[in-house]
Amino acid sequence: MSIGLAQILALALALALALAPGWAAQAEAAGLDDTAVTQVLDEAARLAEDRLSPLAARADAEGCRVVAGRVQVPQGYAEAYRAMGEGGWLAVDLDPDLGGMGLPLALHVAASLPMEGAALPFMMLARAYAAERRQGGAPDAPPVPIDTHPDVKRHFWAIEARALVLAALVLETAVLLDAARTGDALAAQLAAMLLPMAKTFGGELGQDNASAVIQVLGGAGFTREWPAERHYRDARIMTIYEGTTGMQAQDFLLRRVLKEAGAADALIARAGLEGDALADRFRALVVRMQAAGPQARRLAADAMLRAGWCVVSAGLARRMLGASAEADPALQLWLAAAPARMAQAEAGVDWAEGAAG
Question: I want to staple 98 with a disulfide (CB 3.0 to 4.6 A). Which of 94, 173, 262, 299 is the partner?
Fold first, then answer.
């Protein structure tokens, strides 16, 4: 992580948080202005950069061991964990009397993202390499940095888009969970639908980004000099930690969308996609599932989760569009592919209905 990465992460997360509906009221209630929020996120990102990130390579080499019946963590982990506890980072949203900072859950989540190795560091890693690696260009001129090639730019935009929509999803969910704590029934309903998405696509998009970074690095991506392969292994296991995608999908479809009246409409309204073609296509799939039998529903659950994610992620991307000129090409790429992602989900439902007989 470069010296400036902490500030870049803090600013990006502060922007994503500011765009989440409901966050402004929560921040005001907690006595937080934009400067205070940015300061908290900056400190969190610096802790990740200075204390946690250097441990990753060592932990990968040493691993954990069982010694005399007790788990022994790699050197430096106990000290880093103690520093996080002393700084209040383990319970940012808890009352100060309990060792926390008494801050909103969404700010706790935003502060945790740099510490968990979120997708943005992947992008910084790949950009640093691509700016130095020279290959191709005009035959009668010196090789050019590979980050000037259109296809490499496309990779970067795709990586950035996945990072942005995922961060926005996680923060959106946290804002809704905090609102649900106050008795907001609609927020509770929406949070219950977004949680399976955060668990599923948090792992999948992180894995996709790590794979894309390896592709940009080429052969270097398989070496430990550039830790992209470690990031890929770390990201791949997240979908196992959070349970199977099929389990999350059945929670979304069977327990939320089909069981709770108005759930699909509430999801569409939160995304700001009323009257949009994507929303109409999602509603049509929900109607088909309402008429389907139990076997077809279970077989179609994964496709329905992805159809719902298509709606939610399009709403998040549209909300962020225009907030940062640098991010707009990435968000436009994400939105351009949204109809195709919905078509893939529709094909999954078609298959499920046929397979169920």
Answer: 94
